[in-house]
Amino acid sequence: VANLIKENNVNQIKSAIQTGHKDGMVTMENCIKELLEKKLISEEIAENRSGRAKNV
How many independent structural domains does the chain possess? Predict the structure, then answer.
C-alpha cells in the first residue's frame, strides 16, 4: 500500500487490501459491515462513518 501511495496509484489500494485479506487486511466497508452484522454499531453510525453507505 505504501508503494501504491508513493507511485500515486491510490486507485489500486482497495484492490490491494482485498487481495491481502488472507494476511489480515480489511477494507473500511467490510469492517463496518462486520460491526453492523454483530450489532456493535447502529445503522446510523455505519452510514455516517462509511461515507459510502450504499456499499455497506
Answer: 1
